[in-house]
């Protein structure tokens, strides 16, 4: 913190405004410097051998990346954080830190798609077996644990269909079997859910999304507790997968306004999601903060807010018409952009591809359209969605 207050006794926006660096460390400038570094000089040969100084090489950290990592530690309650070049790297590095040939990995079936590809291809080639499980499994994950299960990976809500998981129950079972628990917490951010407080060992964020917040940075963070930190930082150092200083700086700058942006995302998204529940052409709204959603009780128990991304299921009974109707909806939009990622200031829409699911199967009522609600006016966004629904109906 840049002042002397206890971070546990201040509001979230105060912490976001002041976490990560002390201006007094940098001659009073409120933002940390962007340190572009590869070589770091040592005062003498003995120190080169002992490495007894704070910085030794650019890949191991700079004042810029340290400022971001410290901010995330304060938000997450973690022992240490690493910053990596993308959200996917934030998944793969902790997997590599926790797993070795012959190990077994449990992954929720409603996972971020590229994570599944990494497990099925890269980890399989390295001799790690992956089993996918039902996101609603809770404590019954006991039945899937093996003597060689070393990691249980969770994501709540799930990608595109937003299934909730009982994270504390899963963590309790995993730890009883000596396994670590990781969680992709990109949807909620540490503002609305703190994984390490609920038994998770490794909290993963595509900081590309809400922390950076402006659709112009690729970066990921992983925050670990005392148990998981030694292997995570060692793996991070060996792989040399480090975030660029400019991206770390931009993400730290984005953090300063994340609280007020998240409030806006939440309010607008809930207003739109509730309106769509009774909208003709919409078969179902997939948002865990809605009382109608199957996982709402878990969300209400564990989370203290919701973000700006959810999905709708178009009311299209004939599966052969799903793609045509989904494309008609998307092509009619004029404010929503058609693009991947989310968490920025602009609204986005995509036709979710759920063809890789094996357990958490796609809704049968129609195609799933994922909506990222940005910072635009709700009335304008609703009018755009109505255009899309009208186009889908007539397609």
TrEMBL record:
- EC number(s): the record gives 4.4.1.13
Q: From the UniProt record, list the reaction(s) this protein catalyses.
A: L,L-cystathionine + H2O = L-homocysteine + pyruvate + NH4(+)
Could you list this entry's UniProt keywords, alphabetically sorted. Answer: Lyase, Pyridoxal phosphate
| Domain of life according to the entry | Bacteria
- Please list the GO terms describing molecular function: cysteine-S-conjugate beta-lyase activity
InterPro entries, per the entry: Cys/Met-Metab_PyrdxlP-dep_enz (IPR000277), Cys_b_lyase_bac (IPR006233), PyrdxlP-dep_Trfase (IPR015424), PyrdxlP-dep_Trfase_major (IPR015421), PyrdxlP-dep_Trfase_small (IPR015422)
Q: Which SUPFAM superfamilies match?
A: PLP-dependent transferases
Q: Per its Swiss-Prot or TrEMBL entry, what cofactor is needed?
A: pyridoxal 5'-phosphate
Q: Does the keyword RNA-binding apply?
A: no
Q: Which family does it belong to?
A: Belongs to the trans-sulfuration enzymes family.
Protein name per the record: Cystathionine beta-lyase
């Amino acid at each position: 913190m840049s002042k002397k207050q206890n971070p546990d006794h201040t509001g979230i926006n105060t912490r976001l405004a002041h976490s990560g660096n002390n201006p007094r460390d940098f001659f009073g400038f409120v933002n940390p410097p962007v340190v572009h570094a590869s070589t770091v000089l040592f005062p003498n040969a003995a120190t080169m051998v002992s490495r007894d100084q704070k910085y030794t090489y650019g890949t191991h950290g700079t004042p810029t990346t340290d400022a971001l990592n410290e901010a995330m530690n304060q938000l997450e309650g973690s022992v240490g954080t690493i910053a990596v070049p993308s959200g996917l790297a934030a998944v793969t590095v902790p997997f590599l830190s926790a797993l070795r040939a012959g190990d077994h990995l449990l992954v929720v079936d409603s996972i971020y798609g590229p994570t599944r590809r990494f497990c099925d291809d890269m980890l399989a080639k390295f001799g790690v077996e992956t089993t996918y499980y039902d996101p609603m499994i809770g404590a019954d994950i006991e039945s899937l644990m093996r003597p060689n299960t070393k990691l249980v990976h969770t994501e709540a809500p799930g990608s595109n269909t937003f299934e909730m998981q009982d994270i504390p129950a899963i963590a309790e079972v995993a730890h009883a079997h000596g396994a670590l628990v990781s969680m992709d917490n990109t949807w909620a951010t540490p503002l609305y859910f703190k994984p390490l407080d609920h038994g998770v060992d490794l909290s993963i964020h595509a900081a590309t999304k809400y922390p950076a917040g402006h659709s112009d940075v690729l970066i990921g963070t992983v925050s670990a507790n005392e148990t998981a930190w030694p292997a995570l930082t060692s793996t991070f150092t060996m792989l040399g997968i480090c975030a660029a200083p400019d991206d770390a700086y931009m993400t730290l700058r984005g953090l300063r306004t994340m609280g007020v942006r998240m409030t806006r995302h939440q309010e607008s998204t809930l207003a739109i999601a509730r309106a769509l529940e009774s909208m003709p052409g919409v078969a179902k709204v997939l948002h865990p903060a809605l009382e109608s959603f199957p996982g709402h009780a878990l969300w209400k128990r564990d989370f203290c807010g919701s973000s700006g991304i959810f999905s709708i299921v178009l009311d299209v009974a004939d599966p052969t018409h799903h793609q045509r109707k989904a494309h008609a909806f998307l092509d009619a939009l004029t404010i929503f952009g058609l693009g991947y990622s989310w968490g920025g200031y602009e609204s986005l829409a995509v036709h979710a591809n759920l063809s890789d699911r094996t357990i958490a199967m796609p809704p049968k009522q129609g195609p799933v359209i994922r909506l990222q609600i940005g910072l635009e006016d709700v009335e304008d966004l609703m009018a755009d969605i109505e255009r899309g629904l009208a186009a889908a109906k007539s397609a």
